[in-house]
TrEMBL record:
This is Protein-methionine-sulfoxide reductase catalytic subunit MsrP. Mo-molybdopterin binds at residues 95, 98-99, 153, 188, 238, 243, 254-256. It catalyses: L-methionyl-[protein] + a quinone + H2O = L-methionyl-(S)-S-oxide-[protein] + a quinol; L-methionyl-[protein] + a quinone + H2O = L-methionyl-(R)-S-oxide-[protein] + a quinol. The gene is msrP. It comes from Halomonas icarae. Binds 1 Mo-molybdopterin (Mo-MPT) cofactor per subunit.
Length: 338
């Protein structure tokens, strides 16, 4: 089931939001005043959120240092009273990561077995400057930024999460795509010893988990390669040490624990499209007017919620980022290209 069972303290949103997160949100909203909603790249750096209640991560020293040096340049989702940050415990306890099982609590329970150090990423295909890069070398030329984004799962729940990372565009530019590159294809690690979901004979997914973007989507300034969240390293269950975040698309596009990024000529076949092409497409743009064949996409349950307070809100076109991304799809029939 998709509705989260109420914990005794889940009475109201404001009761479960840690004070530090509230403070940082208020500081953040204050910092955004005068900039208007939407993309504020180049806006004034905000003071940096104080995620005092978030536990220490166990990432490498270089990553802790990069997080400390983060350019606190938050990008807000469209302003709405409902856009409070999800408590860290919800964002790191209610996950989809089928490599660790299909239940929402499985990744938090089982992803401890994922070894994230050392980690390297292969960049290949239609590039002049590809190769295998240690994660530190991939990250080091870029400064970290904080991005506060909505994450809207195709299953019609959502959360607001503060990510830390670098624009994917910077990594792609450094790889020097050839003129033939039209799409970007991503792969997650395959290692059944570390990933119990890959040992299951009943798994739907033909591993590796694969995702893809059109090159212009990948180069869009909102598209982030995240290495942290809530002012610390990514927890394993959220896709450590490197995951994609594409905030205007359904969550399944935001592939976790990436080991390969390929620039390609042909549109990649992403895992969910391969499993059920009539239900999940390549584009997967959040769209309240195009329903999933088995449920409506007009509304969503904003977490944290409870049985008594489902916290249902209207889903916004492109998840609220239409001003930034609608032009990417000008002239396209979004009903056909779902
Ligand atoms: N490799 C991999 N990436 C994945 C998934 C997955 O099962 N495997 N699930 C996706 C789905 S359906 C969603 S909604 C988001 C959830 O991200 P979160 O757990 O950090 O909120 O991760 C996406 N990335
Ligand atoms: Mo999802």
């Amino acid at each position: 089931m998709l509705i989260k069972i109420a914990k005794p303290h889940d009475l109201r949103d404001s009761d479960v939001t840690p004070e530090s997160v509230y403070l940082s949100r208020r500081r953040f909203m204050g910092g955004m005043a005068g900039l208007g909603a939407g993309l504020a790249l180049g806006g004034p750096a905000h003071a940096g959120a104080n995620y005092a209640d978030v536990p220490e991560g166990n990432g490498p020293a270089w990553l802790k240092k990069k997080i400390d040096d983060t350019h606190w340049k938050a990008v807000t989702p469209a302003n709405s009273e409902k856009d409070t940050l999800a408590p860290f415990d919800d964002a790191s306890g209610y996950n989809n990561f089928y490599e660790f099982g299909s239940g929402k609590a499985d990744p938090a329970r089982r992803a401890g077995s994922l070894k994230t150090q050392p980690w390297s990423v292969v960049i290949d295909g239609e590039v002049n400057n590809g190769g295998r890069f240690a994660l530190e070398d991939l990250a080091s030329p870029s400064r970290f930024e904080e991005r506060i984004y909505r994450l809207r799962c195709v299953e019609a729940w959502s959360m607001v999460i503060p990510w830390l990372g670098i624009p994917l565009a910077e990594v792609i530019r450094r790889a020097e795509p050839t003129s033939r590159a039209r799409y970007v294809r991503f792969e997650t690690l395959v290692d059944p010893e570390q990933m119990p979901g890959q040992r299951s004979a009943f798994s739907l997914i033909d591993w590796p988990y694969v995702e893809g973007l059109r090159l212009d989507e990948a180069m869009h300034p909102l598209t982030l390669l995240a290495m942290g969240m809530y002012g610390r390293e990514l927890p394993n269950q959220n896709g450590a040490p490197l995951r994609l975040v594409v905030p205007w698309k359904y969550g399944f596009k935001s592939i976790k624990s990436i080991v390969r990024i390929s620039l390609v000529e042909e549109q990649p076949l992403n895992s969910w499209q391969q499993i059920a092409p009539e239900e999940y497409g390549f584009y997967a743009n959040v769209n309240p007017r195009v329903d999933h064949p088995r449920w409506s996409q007009a509304t969503e349950r904003r977490l944290p919620n409870s049985l008594f307070s489902p916290n249902t809100i209207d889903t916004l076109m492109f998840n609220g980022y239409a001003d930034e991304v609608a032009e990417l799809y000008a002239g396209m029939d979004l009903r056909t290209h779902y």
